[in-house]
Amino acid sequence: MVPRDYLYKVSRASFEGRESASYAIVKFLEIESTEVSSNGWMLLSTINLLSSGESSLIDCMTAACLPSTLVKCLYLFFDLPDVQKADTLEPGCEFTPKERRVLLQKVFVQVLVRLCSHMSPAEELARKDDLALLFSAITSWCPAHNVPWRKGCVGMCIDNMQRVQELSPIELVEMFVTVFCFLKDSSEVSQVLLDDFRTCQGYLFLTDFLLRMEKNESEEAIQALRNLVLLVGSLTTCGYMELKPSTASAGSLFKIPGFTIPQPAGKGVSVRNIQAFQVLQSVFLKVSS
Questions:
Q1: N or C: which end of the chain has fewer CB within 10 A?
Q2: d(Cα 127, Cα 51) in Å, to the nearest integer?
């Protein structure tokens, strides 16, 4: 399923510097001027097409260790050097270096998101500890020019959930459960993914989805709506940083002699995610039920 030269390039990362290894893999996968010289790009495009297939096909990819290989690549891509001559169109090339990198990033992330929506790739990542590697990669600092590799994962999830029309309300809520669990677990060590979810308009999509669900009077939709509201409620308490009142927001309270701000009695469940709280507030003010 996966050519040996691709797996070999990835395995060499253990013996080379991460920057040089990541660059070698990207040069193999990026589209070139012709299909003849774009073996890696044709391979990735084929995998992208196959990744939208049946679970039996995904199981074959998992048996070939494709999900864990892609995660290892993603981990290395955070150390990529910046694109040189980004907007210069070379003779005989249809895409600039920057366009090639953006195209690779979009297709690569799409493949990874599609695979991870199935059971066998998730089990493989957990079994090989590559799931921990994925968490480490997308919650760690990286140079500004490599941020799209991290943010693209969250953005692609949201985009896929918005585009797919065949999913039932329950199926969409199950997707939200997966995303929220990911956000919640990562928020214990870093604010990065919560920030990415906000930047990718995830909370706006969540608000619109809740308001649309309210208009659906089917029993399934009502149950899905109830579960999702509970999920958003739990998301309000997720966050790496504790929210503190500021002098500007407290106003004259700081001027009262002897006044001290009361300590929260939430026992660990105080609001830490103001964006999730605002989703509940906005929906509460707009719904009619």
A1: C
A2: 21
Closest CA to 102 of 83, 115, 85, 89: 83
CA atoms within 13 A on the CB side of 99: 11
Q: How far apart are the first and last CA of the chain?
A: 52
Q: How many CB atoms lie within 10 A of CB 6?
A: 20
Domain extents for the chain? Answer: 1-163, 165-241+270-289
Tens digits of residue pLDDT in 245-288: 665 555 555 566 777 777 767 666 778 899 999 999 999 999 88
pLDDT digits (tens, 9 = 90+) for 16-29: 577 888 888 998 99
Which residues neighbour 281 within 8 Å (Cβ) at sequence distance 6 or greater? Answer: none
Nearest to 83 by CA among 65, 69, 66, 104: 104
For residue 51, count CB atoms less than 10 angstroms from its CB and return exposed for 0-12, middle for 13-18, buried for 19 or more.
buried
Tell me if residue 163 falls in helix, strand or coil: helix
pTM above 0.85, yes or no: no
Which runs of consecutive H residues, i.e. helices, occur in 80-239? 97-115, 119-127, 130-139, 147-163, 169-187, 192-199, 202-214, 219-235
Q: Which residues are within 8 A (CB) of 158 and not within 5 positions of it... i.e. 6 or more apart?
A: 197, 200, 201, 202, 205
